[in-house]
Amino acid sequence: MPPLTGHGGDLPLLDLRALGTAADRTTAAKLVDEAFATGGFLRVVGHAVPQAAIDRIAERSRTFFTSDPAGKDTVQADMSDPLTRGLIRREHHEQFFSSMLTEDGRTVPPEYRDFDRSNRWPRLAGFRQSFADYYREVDVLATTLMRLMATALELPENWFVERFDQGFTPLVANYYPPFPEDGGGERLRHPAHRDWGAMTLLYQDDRHGGLQVRTAEGAWVDVPVAPGSFIVNLGMLMERWTGRRWVAALHRVVALPEDSRSDRISLAFFCQPNLDVLVDRVPSGAGDAASDPVTSGDYYRKLAQVVYGANAA
Ligand SMILES: O=C(O)CCC(=O)C(=O)O
Ligand SMILES: [Fe+2]
């Protein structure tokens, strides 16, 4: 395997404190457009997500993941749920999936009845609340970003916001346990991939980094650990929506030798348009990639089957 070492390049950085005037917003939209058109990747600071909400879900998640395995078995994901709500265990990686789709008493459209399931919350004080609180706060950040994205694509400011307002977005806690033995070097925690949804807002543990993104030039760049900063990865559905004007970010997670004996948490807010939104190329999109229009729910169901073997049919 080639060395996993990345380097600290100049990753695009958006400071949301500087959005006061229309001119500021135009500048920010331009930055978003450029970042998504090149690597599909952006770091965000100056948002309003309270650190306490981040710390709380991270702490509750770590408590859950390190709890008794027999207890964790009781919230194992049911693979007939397209949203795979609950726990999925993989080698060196566990994921806890949740969705607010059915938490807030929404009606799921009849064609997507298979998504109408409950979360599999563990019996752990404050766990569910920490997910609900974090979801609500990060959703505000998502809204801000979506307004800038719409502006960048010459769409009405709320164009995306209106298409993401039914809470379908899965919120996933990732846990990477310590490697049991010293590998003698860097280890791969999450292989290189592109997220398949519209856009991911990722929070990486501020104790250990490890996230790397690939630049347009083909270099792996370490995403610096910066408490309070979010990482935005554009996903394959948005690449499709924009006719490849924007590209999905290739990324992976490695453990540096000094970190491989420690565990690591990350929180992924996988922004998904409402189940019945038809994803068809936006007017200002590039002409490339004549993918057929698809609804968000049909797309998700298919990808969940490919990636996780989830199958409701
Ligand atoms: O753990 C991380 O930092 C990245 C996780 C990730 O890429 C994913 O969940 O899709
Ligand atoms: Fe990812």
UniProtKB/TrEMBL annotation:
The keyword Ion transport does not apply. It comes from the Bacteria. The keyword Metal-binding applies. Residues 167-273 form the Fe2OG dioxygenase domain. Keywords: Antibiotic biosynthesis, Iron, Metal-binding, Oxidoreductase. GO terms for molecular function: metal ion binding; oxidoreductase activity. GO terms for biological process: antibiotic biosynthetic process. Pathway: Antibiotic biosynthesis. Belongs to the iron/ascorbate-dependent oxidoreductase family. This is Isopenicillin N synthase-like dioxygenase. It comes from Glycomyces lechevalierae. The lineage of its organism: Bacteria, Bacillati, Actinomycetota, Actinomycetes, Glycomycetales.
